[in-house]
Amino acid sequence: MKQEKNYLTRHHYLNSSRWALDGKLLPKNFNLKMLLELPLDVIAEFLKVMPTGQEANHQLLAPIEPHQEVWASGVTYAHSRDAREIETEIKNIYQRVYEAKRPELFFKAAGWRTVGHKSPVRIRKDTSWNVPEPELVLVLNSFGEIVGYTVGNDVSSRDIEGENPLYLPQAKSYNGSCAIGPGIVILNADELRELSIEMKITRNNEKVFQGSTSTKRMKRSFEDLVRYLFRELTFPHGSLLMTGTGIVPPDEFTLHPGDLVQIKIGSLSLENVIDND
């Protein structure tokens, strides 16, 4: 992977965690909450003067603090709308969401429940139709400004939500259902408008699915999603927001334990193996 400038990663370090900037460890007292309390126009300058130390060769963790939150958006791509209409007998509900002024937003995971690059993600034991959902994840400061991005996998149980759309929290939020990583690229929101998104799923060393899309195919703007998220919620230490998926495997596909899911967005690649323990 190309090394980005202003690239933040979080690592396992001496029974705790430690952040790194551009591959080098930051001071022990640095954390993402501290950074996301700053205005957008200050963040780059703040990082520029941060002292760095040794190479960060330690295990990667999800680039989020334990008590921060991951939220998610639904039906932001036409492909997602069509797939969700197929999976449910309650017709036109997702078409109405797709066309509505108000977006679909839901809580996905707390930071402590979120897994990182090369950590296992899970499928529920009480389901039979499960898929990964590759998504661009916006990194937001406390002012509701977009300060960067990372990669997300919004693992979902299609049969649970298909039975009744009101079951969405159970289909979306459970142990191991949220992966983000490998790190955060700090950049301007305009650099995210036409990012490529790719996903490949490998089973027993053989490719079983591959798909691609682009953020330019989104129905809604990033700013619109963020504006609604912050309308009646405050995030004093910032937040992360998944922006929906435009890649959906065919209806006959479901994840199996041992599958390897690889998601690439821009220059970042997130990999996770599927588990159901």
Automatic annotation (TrEMBL):
It holds the Pfam family FAA_hydrolase. GO terms for molecular function: hydrolase activity. Residues 84-272 form the Fumarylacetoacetase-like C-terminal domain. Keywords: Hydrolase, Metal-binding. InterPro entries: FAH, Fumarylacetoacetase-like_C, Fumarylacetoacetase_C_sf. Belongs to the FAH family. PANTHER family: 2-DEHYDRO-3-DEOXY-D-ARABINONATE DEHYDRATASE, FUMARYLACETOACETATE HYDROLASE DOMAIN-CONTAINING PROTEIN 2A-RELATED. This is Fumarylacetoacetate hydrolase family protein.
